[in-house]
Description:
Layout: E1 7-11, H1 16-29, E2 32-39, H2 49-56, E3 60-65, H3 67-80, H4 92-111, E4 115-117, H5 126-137, E5 142-144, H6 155-164, E6 178-181, E7 186-189, E8 219-226, E9 229-233, E10 236-237, H7 240-253, E11 258-264, E12 270-276, H8 278-294, H9 297-316, H10 322-334, E13 340-347, E14 350-357, H11 365-368, H12 380-388, H13 390-399
Parallel strand pairs: 1-2, 1-4, 2-3, 4-5
Antiparallel strand pairs: 6-7, 7-12, 8-9, 8-13, 9-10, 11-12, 13-14
Helix pairs in contact: 1-6, 3-4, 3-7, 4-5, 7-8, 9-10
Amino acid sequence: xxxxxxxxxxxxxxxxxxxxxxxxxxxEYRCEVVTFSADLGQGEELDFIDEKxxxxxxxxxxxxxxxxxxxxxxxxxxxxxxxxxxxQYLLGTSLARPLIAKRQMEIAEIExxxxxxxGATGKGNDQVRFxxxxxxxxxxxKVIAPWREWDLTSRTALTNFAKKHDxxxxxTPKKPYSTDGNLLHISYxxxxxxxxxxxxxxxxxxxxxxxKDAPDExxxxxxxxxxxxxxxxxxxxxxxxxxxxxxxxxxGKHGVGRIDIVENRFVGMKSRGVYETPGGTILRLAHxxxxxxxxxxxVMHLRDSLIPQYAKIIYNGFWFTxxxxxxxxxxxxxxxxxxxxxxxxxxxxxxxxxxxKSDKSLYSEDFATFEDxxxxxxxxAEGFIKLNSLRLRILNMVNK
Length: 400
């Protein structure tokens, strides 16, 4: 890339990678660097950002609270789809990237910046997620991806660079792994977790207690849904952000939401990741229960057949695409009658459905009962079975 760049907007977390990148951009490109940090619910991590970024050389610092937008416009739409990647991953990092990229591009326009930059490595998924989002918003934007340019090829090299330039970084020998957090989850990867046989230590987890240490007494909660979104817990209405905070608190208290997986990255390699998603785990199970009595069978089966494709679109970074828009519109149409209340029990890492009810319920006790009824003629099933077995009987006769 040409070095003729005057100003860059950097997606900045204050961690090892982006702290080094901030200084490296200033030295390598002789340009001004504006940092942008998104508050997506990661909490105290942002307390030191302004001072640290300016100390490292940033000419301006943006710290934007995007929590409510993140949950309402990214997390909730995905959970209306019951999106899950490779059967377990609830897409916590994947859902955050398009929002960060969108706001970063808005700041680039405000600041008249020539380029944007990120701290994603050349091996990971995030480089794709960020850059696909950038280009979908402005196809002419210049993108600087330091991990694909510099000769700092390891975490050790980055640490040495940081020490040389007097940059404080959080990674220490006692915490030899990489983390990424937001209100939906915390992810852990790299370092000691690169061996898929090595179990993570309990002191690594930040959102959840170990199920072994969770309360001996269970807790029962009720979640109210309106058009597929949770709107209240135990009758108390909450904003999207506060809803997820409270579900995180409840799930974390009872050890709900830990997973340890080896996933297939978009770039082609397998990667081991450990995730904590307490509120999201509760929400997904509750939503499935709500749909079980409010969603038509064929609509449900059609939507379910598209979940792997929908999740892959998000995981691979194609949020701002025509196919995503079409799928989301279809999914949202399925949610019009997903209204009601689900009752759950939280106990030592488990989230157990106890009940569900809805004014829009398609479940009929009159039809489903094993007792005497006057609404279903069991003899009708004989013709139904014979018609459905017709092709099988013909095939058998032909083969004989």
